[in-house]
Amino acid sequence: MARPDRTSSDTCQVRLIGLLRRSASTLTTLLLALPLAPSAAEVEDGLQAIRRSEPAKAAGIWSDLARDGDADAAYHLGALYRGGRGVVKDWDRAFRLFSQAAEAGHAKAQYSLGLLYQNGQGIDIDFARAREWFSAAAAQDHAAARKRLEVLATEMPSRLVEQTPEDALHKAVSLGERTLVTHLLKAGADANARDADGRTPLLLACERGEGEIVGTLLRSGADPDLVDAFADFPLVVATDRGELEIVEQLLGRGADVDRIDRYGNTALIAAARKGHSDIVGRLLDSGAALESRNDAGATALAEARARGHDSVARLLESSGAWPGPAAPDPRSKELEKLVREGGADTALMRAVAAGETELVASLLASGASSRTSDDRGTTALHVAAEHDRVDSAALLVEAGASVHGSRKDGMTPLLVAAGSGSSRTARWLLEHGADPGALDREGRGVLVHAARGADIEVLSLMLDAASPRDRRAALVEAVRDGRGSLVERLVESGASPSTTDREGRTVLSLAARDGHGAVARVLLAAGADPRVPSRGGATPLMLAAGRSRLEVVRLLLESGTDPDARNERRATALMLAAENGSADIVRVLLEAGASTRFRNSEGENALGLAERSGRTEVVAILKEHTGLLGLF
Question: How far apart are CA 427 and CA 543, in angstroms?
């Protein structure tokens, strides 16, 4: 057979290419028209049933397919059992179906199985298994799984993943993760477990001002009177922070109103010292003892007067506190006894705390050391700084005490004074060479401690000496604590309202998350942009909506933020509020024009999330709204 010449071959090739080009659209149409494989077609039938709001019909279709080993059908059926759509909600059945599909390599099922392990839904919490399944899904380019792995790597490092539920509980409380706290407690974590410093989860929650977590822990059996290794306990910690809501919760659960801390302070003395008149009133209603004295010999009234809290002093006097001069101190003989039995150095600490300046001078003259410290590294100068005993501080420094000496936790006398609201001693220490750039062991500076002390006079005093880094850190601290006046002062001094914390969250996001409406208002007025997202793409509106912060949600919507902004999981504020069951916020968002049409990366919309979470009121609201729009 003769071989065709090059010209003939080229001609044939050109003709073939032309033919293919002319028929390209026809070929594409034919390919698209090819029927799906029988199994895939039936899975699609189930999805069509879901779109027609017929989940029971979809469950029937997928059940037979899942029984025959179809991974896609098993995943979709597991999602129905997880949310109770068209079937009775059954976590165990959902777990088995997701496991079946995940083992077959179904990425969405692997991700969903990871969530069950992470949240303890139907099974015990197991972060290690959660990480395994998220990793499997992420290997198939599942975006949400990759994000979950990042969260596990940052907020739940490997040492936490491998730790006990109690260790995980402490970490979850310290992060403010209330949903995880709830799951851990349901999984059996001990609400009274202690960390290395003897702190319980309840004490940590009080230190953070996490009112919702405090309530969850108390309902789960947390003891409100357990103390840590330093004799701190929840009621005095919450009081010191000015957390009235938490104080009320603790008292409602039987907290001992007259328990004392390591310095002999009751909650009433602590409240009077900080000027928290609302808490003073609540403690008095609970029968707090008016004449209790701390180790310095001071009553609540004496502390209020010494720090210029006139309204608190009047409230205490009207309740029967003795209005005359300080009562004779019965501890003077105890101090003499301490000199005989414990030595002059121990007596010196007590004398400084009590403000007995003449006794301090006598003890120093008789050989008491101004440099002696206790097992925590606390010196007499630290005690003077905490109690604002400026005359004693002067005597101690003259006798050789160092203004730079630090405790084991890195706290210098100036840092202690700043955190205690001791303005006179703080000013004196600065004038006598104390280092305003000193940091504690955790890297916190003087301005951060001033913000923690919630004393605007001390904060203002420290501003001139503070670095820009300290100003930013102090702003973050003041925002977290909801200190509106401090936030305003810091912003006025130049701290940026766009400041972020170490995790990349804006201060407006922190205020929105924790429901600090007054703080959010100050930040917005100073120019904070409500549209700027934090880690994971969450906007302040999403954080507020997801945590039921109605006041902040309204404020942010008024500021012009986009109600339909989406995070990296493609979720909107409406989806988060719907899943959380926040009916009032769902209404407000809908009134602001939030769309119900969006779906997250798992294909769920707000209505589906509400149904899966059992939020019946929200389901009714969304159905009524979408019905009015003609979406059914």
Answer: 40
The alpha-helical segments, DSSP class H, found in 319-412 are 332-341, 344-354, 357-365, 380-387, 390-398
Q: Which two tokens stand for residue 624?
A: 């009524």
| Both structure tokens of 4 | 């065709």
Q: Do 267 and 239 meet the contact criterion of CB atoms below 8 Å apart? A: yes
Q: Which residue type sits at 118?
A: Q
Q: Which residues does residue 379 pair with via DSSP β-bridges, in sequence order?
A: 373
Determine contact, residues 403/414, Cβ cutoff 8 Å. Answer: yes
d(CA 581, CA 550): 12
For residue 20, pLDDT over 50 is answered with no
3-state secondary structure of 274: helix
Residues 364/352, Cβ–Cβ less than 8 Å: no
Enter the tokens of residue 280.
């003073």
At 404, the pLDDT band (50, 70, 90 cuts) reads very high
Which of 569, 552, 548, 549 minimizes the C-alpha distance to 618? 548
What SS3 string covers 98-131? HHHHHHCCCHHHHHHHHHHHHHCCCCCCCHHHHH
* Closest residue by Cα to residue 257 from 232, 231, 225, 229: 225
- Token readout for 172 is 């979850």
Quick one: pLDDT at residue 272?
Answer: 92
What amino acid is encoded at 120 in this protein?
Answer: G
When the pLDDT of each residue in the chain is averaged and rounded to a whole number, the result is: 82
Listing DSSP states for 19-54 in one string gives HHHHTHHHHHHHHHHSPPPHHHHHHHHHHHHHHTT-
Q: What is the pLDDT of residue 22?
A: 43
Q: How many CB atoms lie within 10 A of CB 557?
A: 21
Q: What angle do CA 207, 209, 210 make, to 5 degrees?
A: 110
The two tokens of residue 96 are 């088995």
Q: Where is pLDDT greater, at 379 or 454?
A: 379
The average pLDDT across 249-276 equals 91
What is the pTM assigned to this prediction? 0.53
Tell me the per-residue pLDDT of 419-466, one tens digit each, with 9 for 90 and over. Answer: 887 888 988 998 898 888 888 887 888 788 887 766 677 777 777 667
Least confident of 203-207, 303-307, 311-315, 332-336: 332-336
In a 3-state reduction of DSSP, which class is residue 184? helix
Distance, in Å, from the CA atom of 214 to the CA atom of 203, rounded to the nearest integer, reads 9
Gyration radius (Cα) of the chain, Å: 32
Please tell me the distance from the alpha carbon of residue 236 to that of residue 116, in angstroms, as a whole number: 38
Supply the pLDDT for residue 30: 40
Instruction: Locate 107 and state its tokens.
Output: 């990425």
Q: Tokens standing for 32?
A: 């698209």
Query: How far apart, in Å, do the first and last CA atoms of the chain sit?
Result: 70
Collapse the DSSP code of 529 into the 3-class scheme (helix H, G, I; strand E, B; otherwise coil) and give the result: coil
Look up residue 109 and give its two tokens: 């099922």
DSSP letters, 186-250, are HTT--TT---TTS--HHHHHHHHT-HHHHHHHHHTT--TT---TTS--HHHHHHHHT-HHHHHHH
Q: How far is CA 428 from the centre of its chain?
A: 36
**Greatest C-alpha distance within the chain:** 129
